[in-house]
Amino acid sequence: MKPVVSILAAVAIALAAQNILFAQKSGSQESQQPAYDHVIKTNTLRCAYALYPPFISKDPNTGKLSGFMVDVMEELSKVTGINVDWATEIDFGAITTTLQSGKADAFCSGMAMTPARGRVLAASLPVSFGAIEAYVRKDDYRFDNAPEKINSTNIKLEVNEGDLSEQIAKRFFPKASLAYRGTLGGEDQLFLDVAMKKADVTFSGPSNLSLFNHDNPQKALRKVPFPRPLYLVSAVVSTDIKEVALINLINVSLQDMIDNGSLDALLKKNMGKDYGSAYLPPKPRI
């Protein structure tokens, strides 16, 4: 028969081991969602963003941000009581590394979610639906109603590395060669390089082309007419893929805004003539 002291010691060791295992599991679970923990602790959501009018623009003189997604996130702040800090301006190609590094809690400009991005990023409910189109010089009619002609080795596509334009090019036009715009050039650089004959085609949203053509009438591009839009997208707020709790918090807020009509009103306010055509609102549940 074993002494009582030995039995108690064994029980104590076993309980200690269980406590350590539980603590390790708890710590592991907490570490999976550091952005959510930061948001709750500080009552502040740190938003990374990229300039993409009319979703988000910056006044060059004051630095003040404006646009659809700025209004959306301000409304989210009102309904949740959580402050929104537009902490980090980045390029679209840097979304994943920025969120994984913890420099920001969410990417709040409105991002097109794709299967490739879905491997590493979590997406909110859509805040709008829209289309990506192909754009060429005004005197270039080679691809009209024939998107398959873009998929040729003698065609050069202007894209943004790591962004949707690159994914579209590689997925649908793998034979074409790629030309990459500079990381600081913005969407206008895509259009400018096509206008300057550094590339044949580029891909972007219709509002971006309208702004470029307005500011650069001598270099204006045209949309390539196809039987249907080149690529349909939903714009979302994104987080690191492990941030389940944070995406839930954002989704509850967005669903409330969709159902009560406030998100639709903000879209209509910011999209002008593109509302209802280039950009459509998500519908309420009832």
Produce the secondary structure layout.
Blueprint: H1 4-31, H2 34-42, E1 44-49, E2 57-58, E3 65-66, H3 68-80, E4 83-89, H4 95-101, E5 106-112, H5 115-118, E6 121-123, E7 128-137, E8 156-159, H6 164-172, E9 177-180, H7 186-195, E10 201-204, H8 206-215, E11 221-223, E12 231-240, H9 244-259, H10 262-271, E13 279-280
Parallel strand pairs: 1-4, 1-5, 8-9, 8-10
Antiparallel strand pairs: 2-3, 5-12, 6-12, 7-10, 7-11, 7-12, 7-13
Instruction: Please give the largest β-sheet.
Output: 11 strands, mixed
Tell me which oligomeric state these chains represent.
single chain
Q: What is the count of helical runs?
A: 10
Extended strand count: 13
Number of domains: 2
**Residue ranges: pLDDT <50 for 5 or more in a row?**
1-30
Strand content: 15-25%
Shape: globular
| Mean pLDDT rating | 89
Instruction: Estimate percent helicity.
Output: 40-55%
Radius of gyration: 24 Å
User: Which secondary-structure class do the elements indicate?
Assistant: alpha/beta
Provide the CATH architecture of the largest domain. Answer: 3-Layer(aba) Sandwich
- CATH topology name of the largest domain: D-Maltodextrin-Binding Protein, domain 2
| SSE series | HHEEEHEHEHEEEHEHEHEEHHE
What does this structure look like?
41% of the residues lie in helices and 22% in strands. The N terminus is likely disordered. The strands form 2 sheets. Strands 1, 4, 5, 6, 7, 8, 9, 10, 11, 12 and 13 form an 11-stranded mixed sheet that branches. A two-stranded antiparallel sheet has the order 2-3. It is an alpha/beta fold and 286 residues long. The N and C termini lie far apart (72 Å). Helix 3 crosses helix 9 and helix 3 packs antiparallel against helix 10. The chain folds into 2 domains: 143 residues, D-Maltodextrin-Binding Protein, domain 2 (3-Layer(aba) Sandwich), CATH 3.40.190; 102 residues, 3-Layer(aba) Sandwich (D-Maltodextrin-Binding Protein, domain 2). The chain is globular.
